[in-house]
Batch of 3 targets.
Target 1
Amino acid sequence: MRTQVVIIGSGPAGLLLGQLLHRRGVDTIVLENRSRDYVLGRIRAGVLEQGTVALLDEVGLGARMHREGLPHDGTELCFDGRRHRIDFKEQTGTTVMVYGQTEVTRDLMDGRAAVGAPTVYEADGVALHDIATDHPRVTYSKDGVSHEIQCDFIAGCDGFHGPSRPAIPVGVLKTYERVYPFGWLGILSETPPVSDELIYANHERGFALCSMRSKTRSRYYIQCRLDEKEEEWSDGRFWDELKRRLDEKAASTIVTGPSIEKSIAPLRSFVAEPMRFGRLFLAGDSAHIVPPTGAKGLNLAASDVHYLANALGEYYSAKSSAGIDHYSQQALSRVWKAVRFSWWMTNLMHRFPNTEPFDYKMQVAELDYLVHSKAAMTSMAENYVGLPF
Ligand code: FAS
Ligand code: PHB
């Protein structure tokens, strides 16, 4: 079997890349080791930057997002028992779109099927070969039958635990990592959101986030210890703890209900350089991970594949390697700025173990400065809505 680009992974990065390349007349095959339903069952990101919205429009798959998504002009920061609004639209002229990653993935899967582009789900043992040559190959097995795909390029969109990043020789790859000493316990509930916009809360007991998926489905998070398990958190215990970390109005008006999903996610900052080796290109979580505090993970996957699709499109249309030779440097420039913002917001909003009262006062002082300084609010807003591609 042969194709132009093999895409490993049918998450947002792989599927969006597939659609962008299809529009450029580039043939792809997507290989995914999980089932379609398993991929759709993962509850992850919730906030799309305008750049990501524009890419979904570019591939003709933005209709349901515009119909069902929730445009947000701002967000609220809660500290010292009070909420303060950051107005993205006033500060930057731009907004964000609240539309779950599950729905983005569903729209992209449906779009790929509609154009008849092949996806192999439950592909086992995906392995990359000869990536340093002009004739890379990918092998896998499906229902016990072995397959090989010859291709021009491989896009490693297989997330943090996929096979693509490890395929780059150790001596070539340089990684940077910061593991945070806490996690996020998140729940999904069929309850109306407590507020029209997201609320990020810094409390002495720990961070909390009030988000949503629609006007009837809410997504809440509280910071938790890394040694905690979901089963230790009954719904009642979760709601009580969340209320303790919110302002009085939110705590008294929040509508609680049974969780329909509950999970703990660890937090890390991670970047692998370079994002290209030979005919292999990394995009999305295979190359970088950010703590979800800044809502950047999914959106970085989008900017990576925007750059990569342009580069590969130029290779095939203009027979030029300039774009693919520049891809890693171009993508990493935006990645590192988003990693910094996510690290900054995580340090500002969370309670770190073994910190002193002075450290909490420093966080509150920075938040107090932030919400009373136009310059500081503009800086936070332009990073949150997404820096230019
Ligand atoms: P993904 O991990 O989404 O997709 C990779 C795909 O590759 C998966 O479908 C996987 O099954 C597949 N794969 C892996 N190994 C393979 C193999 N050997 N062969 C074939 N396929 C393979 N981001 C935010 O912005 N906000 C959030 O709130 C947020 N919450 C998150 C919560 C959790 C628990 C996690 C893990 C991540 C969260 N993220 C969040 C980040 C997340 O949204 C990612 O940034 C986003 O999924 C990146 O998309 P991809 O790069 O496509 O990676
Ligand atoms: C979410 O809705 O899941 C979400 C929103 C904003 C974040 C993180 C997660 O910063």
Target 2
Amino acid sequence: MSDPQLVLAARVQAALAAAIGQEYANEDPLIRPSQFADFQANVAMALAKRLGRKPRDVATEIVAHLDVADVCADVEISGPGFLNLTLREDWIAAQTQAVHNDERLGLTVTEHPQTLVVDYSAPNIAKEMLAHHIRTTIVGDAFTRSAEFLGHKVIRQNHVGDWGTQFGMLIEHLLDVGDDSPEAEQLATEPNLFYQAARAKFDSDDTFAERSRQRVVRLQGGDAETLKLWRELVELSKSYLGRVYQRLDVTLTDDDLAGESMYNDMLADVCDELERKGIATMSEGALCVFLDGFTGREGKPVPLIIRKSDGGYGYATTDLAAIRYRALTLHADRIVYVIGAPQALHLRMVFETARKAGWLEGGTEAFHAAIGSVLGPDGKLMRTRSGEPIKLMTLIEEGVERAEKVIEDRGYDDQTRKEIAAAVGIGAVKYADLSTARDSDYIFDLDRMLALQGNTGPYLQYAVARIRSIFRRAELNVTDATGPIVVGDPAERALALQLLGFGGAIDALLADVAPHRLCAYIYALADAYTTFYENCPVLRAPDDATRASRLALCAVTMRTLVTGLALLGVPTPERM
Ligand code: ARG
């Protein structure tokens, strides 16, 4: 445990227990970075109120029992009762050295591995992925990568929309064009073309529409030949998804597909169970779940309809089957839904129903990681000029094209330029997404995303490339920069302290599914590095010991940046 914030919290806690009494052993002191010292602890004030004592007296008593001589050079009581804690330089240096010596940069594998089921990406089969799918895909992927890195068991569930009435017309269209026709090929390359062609026929050709409707009936009835055609359709679409995920370097594979159709066989049973338990009741011919506190206008209860009056099941029933399966069959400790914010009410009702049914009683937590929208320059949902929703791949390839312009004049051969442009363009779009709080909206603006200054992907990739070039000039392998690290200059101290906060940033990401917390950390680290680099000559350091220490600081900074960006799924090209 090298995160100074955690170390100090534990020490203050112990002092608190010793000074005021064991019953306060679990009191969590608020330790935060301070402009007056390295950190400031705030516990005396809240406590004093409860004890009816003067905050300064409580603070004095805590300090008298505070055993931090090995960690802190100075402890001061300031203001009404804050503790200002200044760390020892040799402690900072030793901790940073320990991080540097550790292959995992001090990020120990968790002692309490959880089973995390993560529902993310979830586009619709036989349709193009749209702008908003980038967010549910990228945020979910940063979360699963980070959780796995810390040793949790992650089960990815790509809840693709692979079932519904539109499959009748899609199957009929596939039959018409033939499964090895160029039209069928479109499913794997440009699924929208296939979908639109089917739709156009459905709207203009009555016999086709009738055939499609009969096909839906056979599909739902489990007709073997129809299911075979449906599977073919899904199969072709899979290769489209695979291609997008590969281009985006997203960890989802075919094995993670757990589409809506997977739950078909469970739907009737879910309805029965909820009815049997008295949670679902018949209302106007439909089977509904009414939940306390879910009311619409004029206080009218809003039902969750789980079986329509025609006997059909819907989106909600599928999600109920999914949550039951994830909790009871996959044994999830936590189910994370990386899904658009507009679905918040739907999910709250699903979660509440699951809770009432007892499915979460094994201690399963259901968490909606709500995702905001991607907006166009006008601040409205992104659309093309003709009013169509924008395809995800259009955005991505535009980013790559623009990145290629940025590096046009650097003298790279074609192949290298293409590789760097892909890393920079895709990295820029992904990073821009991840660095925004996941539930706020953002405007898709490639100029901002590709800027070489500020909290952007290219700025951070550039920071990494710059450190790499130092090692090239020093003719030294990064792994050979072993230190020892000493911390003297204020810029060295600030950089080292920043390096020690990596674990805390990942914990923050995991707790709230908040990749922007890790982004903010990485950006602050790159900033601390820039200040260090401007103030502390590395290759021209005054003596060999300082040079060795600074090279080690460069090396551990680089590894932290690369690892942090990799956990976000953002590549770091060798050169830029
Ligand atoms: N397929 C849906 C869409 O594209 C999202 C599904 C989200 N996951 C879920 N379990 N409801 O909007």
Target 3
Amino acid sequence: MTTYDDTNIFAKILRGEISSYTVYEDDVAIAFMDVMPQAPGHVLVVPKAPSRNLLDADPHVLALLIPVVQKIANAAKTAFEADGITVMQFNEAAGGQSVFHLHFHVIPRHEGVELNRHSGRMEDKDVLATHAQQLKGVLGN
Ligand code: DGP
């Protein structure tokens, strides 16, 4: 299937049907902690507008979304005292995508520390809650 399906898990989070550790929200996007972090502080930036991924996204949405990705990346760098930030984005199953609503991964990186496996182990809820608080503290909410 290559059309948008609004039963995906991020659409449910956007509709408030499923809970998430949300750290940021504006008219364009929300950001919440990835439950299977590839590094501590791994956060997802998700546009409110529906699209499967980058390939079918409205360019106007992308233009508004990238500044949000930048904002969250800078906040994550500060909150987790990161040496760098990896931004990742996957398109279709063959491209590594498993949730079919556009999202950008923002991952704090530290020198010499390898990433965990993509979509690997579910993180402990207390850890996710603590990391969300750290990020929210920097974002000022
Ligand atoms: P991908 O579609 O390959 O870019 O990866 C999807 C990511 O979403 C993966 O890192 C794990 C994460 N994820 C999967 N299910 C949930 C969920 O229910 N809540 C949250 N917060 N993250 C999820």
